[in-house]
Amino acid sequence: MAGRARRSYSVSSAYPPRPNPALTLAPPRTSGDHTFNISPDVPLPYPSGSSTWSDVTKMEQFSASSVSLAQRRHSTAALRRKYEDLEQKLEATPLWVLVSTYLNYLVLILYGHLRDILGKVFKRDEYAHLRTHNGYAPLVSDFDSFYTRRLYVRIRDCWNRPITGVASRSVKLLDRTSDDYNKTFKLTGTITEAINFASYNYLGFAQSTGDCADAVEETVKELGSLSAGSRTESGNLSLHRQLESKVAQFVGKPAALVVSMGFATNSTTIPALVRRGCLIISDELNHSSIIFGARLSGASIRVFKHNNMDSLRALLQEVISQGQPRTHRPWKKIMVIVEGLYSMEGSIVNLPALVQLRKEYGFYLYVDEAHSIGALGERGGGVCDFFGIDPSYVDILMGTFTKSFGAAGGYIAANKRFLMQDVIDYLRLRNHSFAYAESITPAVAQQIMTSLSIIRGEGGTQEGRKRIQQLAENSLYFAARLREMGFIVYGDEGSPVVPLLLFNPAKLSAFSRELLKRKIAICVVGYPATPIITSRARFCLSASHTRKDLDFALEQISEVGDLLMLKVSRAPRKSVYRPTNSISVAMWTGMLICACVSLVLILRLWLVLPMNRSRPKHKRTGPCKTCIVLGSGGHTSEMVALIRQIIHERYSPRLYIIANTDDLSEVKARKVEQDRSAIEGKDYFVHRIPRLREVGQPLQTVPFSVIKSLIGSLYVLYNMPDLVSETSVLCNGPGSCIAVCMIAYLPRILGIKHIHIVYVESFARVQTLSLTGKLLYNVVDSFLVQWPDLAAKYPRSVYNGIVV
Questions:
Q1: Helix crossing, 583-608 with 737-750: angle to 10°?
Q2: Would the CA dihedral through 224, 225, 230, 231 be positive or negative?
Q3: pTM here?
Q4: Does the pLDDT value for residue 175 go beyond 80?
Q5: What are phi and psi of 504, to 5 degrees?
């Protein structure tokens, strides 16, 4: 990948991975020893005693005798990886998208308040729970519940969809319907199977068959379904101790503890580590479990900009120099809390810079690896494995078993001594989720043990390495394709979480529903989980997804993106169109030119075709001068046959207006007319004009295309005004026909001439019209469709057995 360092976990036979000395699996001393530590047999790529992020100018320890130049370049880049090599800058949202999003929310809020006001007056019983009743204040005020009642309920069908079976590569959804606008639902009894992009199943261990399922079954037979107690009482099984030992070895820490709930892992551990007089410095986009735990602790909380090390450095300098509020005493402890992989943004923490700041300022570093453990790194060891950093530089490593291990619960791993005592032993007494909550069930513990063994490659299996590689390839491929299509996509390179920006609240529900119709299940997220202007769809990639699954999903996403006008990215990509920085100036200039040309055309039409309104109308008997507009598809032969069927008269001369990118239509038109001219001796003309919008064209360039298409249509009618006197305009395809129809409609508006406009809906849809058809449905004189179902659905349409 030119200009960008390759990810070390994206391994293949062409690029054999270089063992990372900071996190190398040393050869087991015994069959059960798979300690995750520094291997003395692997030469360090940096001088002894220096840190892994130091500037190393030469990789003298790297032997080039057995590898090619490309392999050597790959391995060197992997050893010297920096965050900047994989960072994807968050693209700025176009101004017009922001304005439309705010306006949409404004309309929803105003309309919601209006309904509340009217409802409290005319439907008092339905709104009784929002008013004071018998001296009791409402349990939930109308302001607090406004967003839920007026915005969320309208699109509630996009969440909480019931499923059945195993949520792995695909998921089976129980279909449901609502008769009261999503207040309640009822199951229809049918099932829809869709490709699953909504579940956290990064390595595909959510399975009902295989090694994990077999091991879980045996454990349940032996130990039962639950431990029936907390770890400090009767629920401390030998299986739990084995699991803690294996987790500690895997993440490279001396000890670890496991709890039965992922959210509680953060929310109960943080209050046990810090208290009043301490300072927590938190990333602004940290998970709610971190925020909840920080508030429970009683410590002071400061926030720095997301993944911005300059902001963190400035904040550290401020808080260390100023000390505690009012007293200015030194802080008892300063703890910086970040996530390894941010699940809403798909961004990876800049761990090398964080560790460097830790050395400079002496704070404790707490890393939440809920999404990164198992999903990042060549061995699935998380961000430390990913960046090649010794885990000892991170004081507290937290993670969950719900994402990559197909299980439940979480873990805390720490250095041996913290606060002058063993931190894990300290947490066994102070962590409420360990001391008071029920322990992990034997079935879940065994699921974690078996999946962890597969990831670590115990027994010589390569299944775990293959899953990690497959996840990496899927993540890189999927995000790159979405960006090429023109979507605004967040997330760093290789992140298994791929957020696609939707912005508008109405598009949030439309995107989810349209993809579900196409058998794709996704998770959409909006305010208040995200900022109000950055509603998004979140795709969670899995090692269980095949390339066929991804290609099918990308094709459907692209179609829905065109339908909802979501391809608003200005980033350079493979496209005929390029954004411009002078949109407003060029737009107004083009509109002025278009207005001048339109005025000239109107004057010419008025002079050439003087109309005597008092003259009695007479039926036309002469030949019909027909203009054929071909949008796309090269349906020239069929259109000529259609003219004979509809008009029943000979037409002369003939004018073809063809989209400038439709070479096939022009070739067919010239062939048909050359054959007819040899027999009838009639002239014909072919003109090329731009389409209104090409497929995949960025929306910010559409005004230019519209202006060019209108000017092209005006030019044709200006140079051949006699065609307007006795003409029928026949259109098909979504290309340039809209502009021609609008221009042909202009003489009718001005009272100059009624030009008969015929539109042929040739888009291959059986149940609905194309976007062009919807725009022209109420404008044209004759609307022909090629499917009888459309004729029954749309009263103005006509079906004559036409197939174009």
A1: 50
A2: positive
A3: 0.64
A4: yes
A5: -70, 135
